[in-house]
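cron nightly-structures :: item 1 of 1
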Amino acid sequence: MRLLVSSMKVDGSADGPDMQPLLKVENLVKRYAKRSLVGAREELLALHGVSFTISPGSTLAVVGESGSGKSTLASCLACLESPTAGNIWFEGKDIVTLGERARQQILPQIQLIFQDPASSLNPRWSVLEILIEPLILRRKFNREEMSQRASSLLERVGLSPDIVERAPNELSGGQRQRLDIARALAHEPKLLILDEPLSALDCSVQAQIANLLMELQSSLAMTYLFITHDLAMAAHLADEIAVMNRGRIVEQGPAEQILKQPRHETTRQLLAAVPRMVRALPALEQ
């Protein structure tokens, strides 16, 4: 279990006057308009005043049940959706208020990994085509260099370069998830947003991908926002945990603190739902 304590405080502020957060989210709000069964216009509040910071090289896990707002948060941070209100500061720049051209220059540094890579990988493209697309967009490499980089990316995520001619549907679920991570790394991002990246995999493959993520973070100084409903996996991977319920962060702090001294009922319910976590708790107190 990873029990590193990052430089973030429980209130989301960074320790030290020189510590510049990579990502700072302030009072993020997201509302959706919908129609009721009788045709009346209703409003759904998916995010309600969400605030936190993430220091470079650390992992914040956002944990909550389905419908708590986790995936909406991921979509807003990756600029797939526009927040209704609030600010998202990335390296000191508010990507909510930036012009489109300036935002497009920042977005490659923020990459989103989905739960089901089959939905985000073009089924008509080969592995090689999937990996060189972001390299083409960067306009820095010739065809041979892109091919070499594609092979290097595959090796970095534990895949053989021999699969470059295969289509995504010829790969296993774990291989597709590794490919999705490799494609994100092609952009040379500073922040990976991982939206339930392990939940569609069986336990043994989950452990392999989790270990890969920790290895990449160590070797590339990556920063992660790890979104999950699994508090056990959050504690394994994260420095800090933020618990969401109904669009709000109801509890936040170092992983060890959340596990040993949960304060909110939502956190206690998530702990109770994971028996293996309960068994691990006595070891934390030694």
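cron nightly-structures :: done
Residues 3-17, 277-286 have pLDDT under 50 and may be disordered.
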